[in-house]
Design brief:
about 210 residues, alpha/beta, 10-stranded mixed sheet, 6 helices, binds 5-O-phosphono-beta-D-ribofuranosylamine
């Protein structure tokens, strides 16, 4: 199901799954304000009732839902079935994970195979998992960055849709590096989602302080 917009173009109905502040969510919402953007953000869903991004989404006029994982008492698939029901009810066609801090089971990854994207704060396949900026500094890499990829059964794996690289600078702390990467995440995610929805092939894009390739 795709909602018609002014001018007759169909936009893909996208849900964003968050667990926290939702700055990548905000970047996607901002991009989708452009009627020419190929996605409409139709739903923001969180597993945490206290996720800061929920208020941001609501103030942007976007429907929000919470499916708290705690009452499911460790039954991750049952939690995901509840989420999936809401996604289907809302006519969602693509799901963007944006700081969604739950490991997914094969149920949800299979249900949304090829239709679920994630953003990860490293140049995958380097540094899957948590604490990527600390690990980048400890390892001594000179180039770090972020990746948008399709979600598969394995955590932080799956076909890469785009990456943005940033330099690691002298004197970097994990927080400084994270902030530099996050600025690129906010450019990369909307661009990678748009290219994915338009079925366009990857092409490198230059930006003044980073290589953004989607
Ligand atoms: C981002 O760094 C994202 O790459 C990672 O979690 C963080 C979420 O930040 N998956 P935000 O909630 O989008 O601000």
């Amino acid at each position: 199901m795709a909602a018609p917009v002014t001018g007759g173009a169909a936009r893909t109905r996208v849900a964003i799954l968050i667990s926290g502040r939702g700055s990548n969510m905000t970047a996607l919402i901002e991009a989708a304000r452009d009627p020419a953007y190929p996605a409409e953000i139709a739903l923001v869903l969180s597993n945490r009732p206290d996720a800061g991004g929920l208020a941001t989404a609501a103030s942007a006029g976007i429907a929000t839902r919470v499916v708290d994982h705690r009452p499911f008492k460790g039954d991750r698939e049952a939690h995901e079935r509840a989420i999936d029901t809401l996604l289907v009810e809302a006519g969602i066609e693509r799901v963007c994970l944006a700081g969604y801090m739950r490991l997914l089971t094969p149920f949800l990854t299979a249900r949304w195979h090829g239709r679920m994207l994630n953003i990860h704060p490293s140049l995958l396949p380097a540094f899957p998992g948590l604490h990527t900026h600390e690990r980048a500094l400890e390892t001594g890499v000179r180039i770090h960055g972020c990746t948008v990829h399709l979600v598969t059964e394995l955590m932080d794996e799956g076909p890469i849709l785009g990456q943005a690289a940033v330099p690691v600078l002298a004197g970097d702390t994990p927080d400084r590096l994270a902030a530099r990467v996050l600025r690129q995440e906010h450019l990369l995610y909307p661009a990678a989602l748009a290219r994915h929805l338009r079925g366009e092939h990857a092409a490198p894009l230059a930006s003044p302080d980073a290589l953004l390739a989607v």
